[in-house]
Structure formats: structure tokens, C-alpha cells
Design goal:
Length: 639
């Protein structure tokens, strides 16, 4: 008998001893980080809401209760009873019964009503029918991504359970080493922006954090070195995704192509956005005649192996490591990742990308941890003079530019990232039109922006508090404003917009590295009455950065690197700072300043050479911390 089987037997005995005599336990198993308890008495379990909480506290594990299949009523009978328990205003759109696990997935327009105060309605469902309810939100805006992910995971349910059981046994295996140390190896995004990737290692465990591409370059993380996949793909215990942007997520499917078969931990919205962006990554590569590094089947493998976690959940991901996600304020589902290593041995936090203050979309990044000895901190705007315009001033400037363009009978073209920046700008425009600060006019959304917006409305609990409350009420949902138009008619519709009245166009790609923005430039760049407005970071080597720097003859085939057909840029070009999803220099300093206790060491990463060195030096002099501006392929050891 393996050590895990022995452990499960002991746990079953402890659980049985803790439970009332009238509640039986038929099986105990691990599924990923959770301990799953099967019982023939789910209705009795549900009568006492404290039972699970007390068990979880005593066992120090995340617990899920499921009914033994023999204890279930028929789905047909249960369907009727579940609908009788849930108030009609919840807006149930689907019930999906899974007899193998005794779970019923309830899709509803208002999940909060299905859950009830303190989970009271969920417990009542189990009391009535025995089934374990799981609640998901019906997207207010139809999302093919959310639908496809949910249907795919339903189809792969059996294989996914096998994956989770294997992962669970791996997490709870016996520790084999008595050594105590922690190492961080830098595999990318050091003294550069993009290809984020790090390896966190202990004598027992190896965790990969992020695996992204580099905008405007074909450089990839150093995955083949001994610290990474050089020791074999399954020498990695787990992969963590801080957020879905491609410079952090694009190359995760490559791991499965190389043979990795373990878990990826991220938030639920990051999982969905990751799939959306990775498939678009493949589509763009194909259209540009490049050979993508993996195919769509590897994207599906990535989603299948993803274990979503919520902010604040402390989760065992290895015998000696606990992981907790916290809001990073950057994009939907973005997370500051906190690792508690060993029994109080060491604590490491990776900021991912952060925005420290509140924005229209998100609450500011969390920096409140019980302990952090080492912080790995992004430095995108860490330069000495990288102070962004106040957001209110930025909004006023954007409104001025749009009004000026409107008066000239022109069109304002805003290249924007599909995820985060576009939704931020949509909120600004919706409010400005509602308050008559700019004329009401069409706002055309091209590329993945509409689909990304639909995903945002699916997960309002990850948005800023007041925005979340607005989305809960359809008549106040700003993303449903009638001026927003999804461009889905291709070049024919783009031509009609070009020939029409003044309008605003939000289009991917945000750095003008391909995608529909290239078509908009072809249609609109030659008219000086039109305006191109940058609202996001333009990385070195991208066409967006070159236009910012004054290029007025631009290549229309980004794969030609400036050779071949060119286009004369006659439209005005403006940049409005302040909408970035990244903290500026002051925000980064404040993130560190207000940490209590502050870390002992800080690694400044994810910024160009000047930015990381400036931030590293500034934090050292201001707070007397040990700071570093590492290069790629460096390793730091901590004890």
C-alpha cells in the first residue's frame, strides 16, 4: 500500500470519528488539492452547515462532500425539486446532472440567488434531493469561449477526474528530502518585457510560473535548460499562470507538446481568457505565414489540465508548498501569487503584472500577506521618470481628442488590447456619452474585444465592487450600451464604417503587430481628419512603438520587417498615458512601501534594462532592502 493510500485510510478513520453516528462515509479520495468525501447520507450532512467547516479546520484541507451514487434520486425527479427550491428570479438556464459524482451543475443568470445567504439555498437543495449543487453564471453577453470551455470540460469529465486524482496523489505524496532551501531561476522577462517565465524550486518540488512570448520578437523562454524542461517535462510538479496576457501565457501549450502532463493553476476567468488568446495567437501566426509552435489540440490539453482557484484560497499544490492567489488589479482574473514553502520555512510572492490603485475595472492590487521574504516585482514602468498621467486627466484628454475628431467629421481609431484596456476605454466612453461629454456615436469593437467583454460580464465578482453591482442589473450593465457595435462583417463592414458618419473604433492588436488594426489603417490612415490614439504600452520592436516614435511610412505586412508594401500615415497620432494596466513608478514604490512586513529581498523583473535598474536602485536607497535586477538564466538561493 502506498503512503497516499495509507494517508487516505487514516483520514477516513478521523473523519468517521468526527461525524455523528448517523452519517456514513463510503469513500475518501483526493481530486487535485481537494479532499473528496463520499457519503450515503448527503441530506443529513447538509442539515448541519458547520460540519464541513469544522472538518476542514481540523484536517487543514479543502473538503468537498459528494453523495454516494447509490444515495441519489433520479435526475428527472431531482430536476423538478431543484427548480422548486430555487427562487424563480434566479433565472435558471440549465441543469446538468452528473451521476458519477452526484453533482448537479446549475447555470443561472443570478447565481447569488441560487447560492442563498451563507449558502443556505445550496444546502436546502442537498437536503431535498441529495445531489451536490455547483453554480455557474449565464453570461449576460453570449460568449462562445465560455460555452466552448464548459462544453469541452463536460465532454472530458472522465479524463479530467483521472487527471485530478493523479494530481491529488502527487500533491499529498510523502516528502523525501530533509534539505531546506528555495531557489528561483529566471527563464525570461529579465531586463526585457515579455516571455515571462520563472522556476521556483525546493529539494522536493519544481514549480513553473508563467510561460509567455515576447511581443515584436521570436524570443521564447529558456525552457530547455536543466533548471526547466532539461530535466524532463514531468520533473515539473505544477505550473502557475498569473494572468492570461500572451507575454505570460502564450507558450503554455508548448509544455504539453513536450510531454508535460501536470496541473496548471490559475483563476477561472484567466483560464477562459487564456484559451481565447492562445487560439487567436495560432490564428494570427497562420495568417502571417508563420509556423505556430503548437496546434489547437495543445490548447485543449492546457484547458483540460487547468485547476481554477479563487482569490484568497490557501491551496496545497505540492507536499511542501501552499499557493494563494490575490487580486493583482491588472486584467480580469490576474493574480499576485504567494507561495508558502515548507512548515514556515520561506515565503515568496510573484507580483505578475499589477496595478496598485483602483481603476474603473478593478480594485487595486493586494499586498497584504502574513509573510513574504522575497518579492519578484514587475518593473514595466519602473524607470526614474515613469510617472503616468492621473487617470482623470487621461480621461479628459481622451474626451478632448474624440470631440476634436468628431468636429472634423473624422474617426478616432484606438488600438487596444482585447483584454482589460478595451473594457476600461468602453467604460470611459459609455459614461462620457451618458453624461453628454462627447456626442453619442457608434463605438465599433473589432477583433476579440466583444468576446473578451462577454467573458468580463461572466465573472463580475472579479471586477471593481461598484461595477460588479451594476452588471448584476441588466438595465445598468454599461457593456450593454446600445452604441457598442461588434464588427463581425469583415472588410465589407469596415468599408461601410469608413464611408459613414464620425465614429470611434476600438481594435486589436494593441501594439499594431497584426490583426484587424492593420485593415483600419489601410482604410483610415490616409485621411488627416482621422486620428490614431494610443492608450497602452508599445513594446520595443513593435510597429506601434515605431509609429509613436514618428514613423509615417508603415509596412503593411508585419512579417516583412519594413520591406515591401508601405502605407503613408496622414492621420494625426496621439498618445494618452494613464490607462495602463501596470502600476507606474510611484505605484510600484507604494506597493512595496505599504507591505507589512516588507520583504527582505526584491527581484525587479519584466521591464527594460533602464526600468529594472532604476527601480532596483530606488527601492534599495529608499527602504534599505536587498534588491536585484537579474538577467535571464540567473538562479537565486534562499534559506
Amino acid at each position: 500500500m502506498s503512503s497516499v493510500d495509507t494517508q487516505l485510510e487514516e483520514l477516513e478513520s478521523k473523519i468517521t470519528a468526527e461525524l455523528p453516528a448517523d452519517i456514513s462515509v463510503s469513500d475518501v479520495t483526493y481530486e487535485g488539492p481537494e479532499l473528496v468525501i463520499y457519503t450515503r447520507d448527503p441530506k443529513r450532512f447538509a442539515k448541519n452547515g458547520e460540519l464541513i467547516r469544522n472538518l476542514a479546520g481540523k484536517l487543514r484541507k479543502r473538503i468537498t462532500i459528494r453523495p454516494d451514487p447509490h444515495a441519489l434520486s433520479s435526475p428527472r425527479h431531482a430536476n423538478k425539486q431543484v427548480r422548486e427550491v430555487i427562487p424563480e428570479e434566479a433565472g435558471i438556464t440549465g441543469l446538468d446532472f452528473h451521476e458519477d459524482t452526484g453533482e448537479v451543475v446549475i447555470e443561472a443568470e443570478k447565481p447569488g440567488i441560487v447560492i442563498g445567504r451563507g449558502g443556505s439555498t445550496l444546502r436546502e437543495i442537498t437536503r431535498q434531493v441529495g445531489w451536490t449543487p455547483e453554480v455557474v453564471r449565464t453570461p449576460p453577453i453570449e460568449s462562445s469561449t465560455v460555452s466552448n470551455v464548459r462544453n469541452f470540460l463536460k465532454q472530458e469529465r472522465d479524463e479530467r477526474r483521472e487527471i485530478l486524482e493523479r494530481v491529488g496523489r502527487q500533491i499529498h505524496r510523502e516528502e523525501l528530502s530533509d534539505d531546506e532551501w528555495v531557489r528561483i531561476s529566471t527563464l525570461g522577462c529579465c531586463r526585457e518585457v515579455g516571455r515571462a517565465s520563472f522556476m521556483l524550486s525546493t529539494p522536493e518540488t519544481r514549480i513553473l510560473i508563467d510561460c509567455g512570448d515576447k511581443p515584436g520578437s521570436e524570443d521564447v523562454p529558456y525552457l530547455q535548460v536543466p533548471e526547466a524542461l532539461g530535466a524532463g517535462p514531468n520533473s515539473i510538479d505544477a505550473v502557475i499562470l498569473t494572468h492570461a496576457h500572451l507575454d505570460h501565457s502564450a507558450l503554455l501549450p508548448l509544455l504539453f507538446k513536450y510531454g508535460y502532463d501536470g496541473p496548471i493553476y490559475t483563476t477561472e476567468p484567466s483560464r477562459d481568457l487564456m484559451g481565447l488568446l492562445q487560439l487567436d495567437y495560432l490564428d494570427v501566426a497562420s495568417k502571417e505565414g508563420r509556423n505556430p509552435p503548437y496546434d489547437s489540440s495543445m490548447v485543449r490539453e492546457t484547458i483540460k489540465h487547468t485547476i481554477p482557484l479563487e482569490y484568497g484560497d490557501v491551496t496545497d499544490i505540492a507536499p511542501d508548498i501552499k499557493l494563494t492567489f490575490h487580486n493583482a488589479g491588472h486584467i480580469l482574473g490576474s493574480a499576485v501569487t504567494h507561495f508558502h514553502v515548507g512548515d514556515g520555512l520561506y515565503n515568496v510572492a510573484f507580483s505578475g503584472d499589477i496595478h496598485y490603485t483602483d481603476t474603473r475595472l478593478f480594485n487595486g492590487a493586494v499586498n497584504d500577506f502574513p509573510r513574504v521574504e522575497t518579492l519578484v516585482l514587475e518593473s514595466t514602468y519602473g524607470g526614474r521618470n515613469d510617472y503616468q498621467t492621473d487617470q482623470a486627466d487621461s480621461e479628459r484628454r481622451l474626451i478632448e481628442l474624440i470631440n476634436d475628431t468628431y468636429e472634423n467629421d473624422g474617426k478616432a481609431v484606438i488600438p487596444a488590447f482585447a483584454v482589460g484596456r478595451s473594457q476600461e476605454i468602453m467604460l470611459v466612453l459609455e459614461e462620457a456619452m451618458r453624461n453628454d461629454k462627447i456626442p453619442t456615436m457608434p463605438v465599433h469593437l473589432d477583433g476579440m474585444i466583444w468576446e473578451a467583454t462577454a467573458i468580463h460580464t461572466t465573472y463580475p465578482e472579479y471586477l471593481r465592487d461598484d461595477l460588479r453591482d451594476r452588471i448584476f442589473h441588466d438595465d445598468e450593465n454599461p457593456f450593454l450600451a446600445e452604441q457598442f457595435n461588434h464588427i463581425d462583417g469583415g472588410d465589407e463592414e469596415r468599408q461601410a464604417v469608413t464611408d459613414g458618419d464620425p465614429a470611434i473604433i476600438l481594435s486589436t492588436s494593441g501594439m499594431i503587430t497584426g490583426g484587424p488594426i492593420m485593415s483600419w489603417l489601410q482604410y483610415l490612415a490616409g485621411d488627416p481628419d482621422n486620428r490614431l490614439v494610443f492608450v497602452g504600452y508599445q513594446a520595443e520592436g513593435t510597429l506601434g512603438r515605431r509609429i509613436q516614435n514618428g514613423w509615417d511610412e508603415i509596412p503593411m505586412d508585419s512579417g516583412n520587417r519594413g520591406r515591401g508594401e508601405t502605407l503613408s500615415l496622414e492621420m494625426d497620432v496621439d498618445t494618452v498615458d494613464g490607462f495602463s494596466g501596470h502600476a507606474d513608478r510611484q505605484g510600484l514604490e507604494n506597493f512595496v512601501k505599504t507591505m507589512n512586513p516588507r520583504p527582505e529581498k526584491i527581484l525587479c523583473v519584466h521591464g527594460d534594462e533602464r526600468s529594472v535598474q532604476d527601480l532596483s536602485s530606488g527601492l534599495y536607497h529608499e527602504y534599505n532592502l536587498r534588491t536585484f535586477a537579474p538577467k535571464n538564466l540567473e538562479t537565486f538561493r534562499f534559506e
